[in-house]
Amino acid sequence: MMMKTKTAILLFLFLAVIQLTVPLYMTWHWEDVLKNGHQFYWATAPVDPYDALKGRYIDLHFKEMSGPILDGSDFAHGQTAYAVIGERRDNKAYIQGIRANRPAGEPFLRVKVLYVKKDQDQAFVIVPFKRYYLPEDVAPAAETAYRTSAGKDGVALVRIKDGYGVVEQLYIGDKTLLDVLRERK
Question: Tell me, what's a Pfam family for it (predicted)?
Fold first, then answer.
């Protein structure tokens, strides 16, 4: 009887530690990308949705979401690939190319292939960051301000590390979205 009780307590403690460790690791992982990831500025074109569990966010769409296939791979819809990221002279990020294997020594994102134009050796991809969450009280004004600037001078600052990307800030021109809202009050 004593052995069964000890085993049950040990099993309970093990499960409790796992339940605490998994959410803490997930939070630490994304915070690590924000703190230590390489910064890239992406030109955007947003849409305005709502998530019942997470709140208001801007659904980000990016202008350039394709690149040449670098290694001759034959990609299929939904396949995981790696997008090598570069920066243009205007400091905007772009996809230098898509490859099947994880690149070494250069910034990259783990992406999903949407479709391939075989005649152009071009792959169109879905990036792993699409949402920028907003405080509920500023969401309506922020959505309106950003929607009017998207496609013109709307930019997302994205941190990238080890294939993961996190949207750190949204800009309208050279000002953050929140600074623009403060000026409009």
Answer: GDYXXLXY
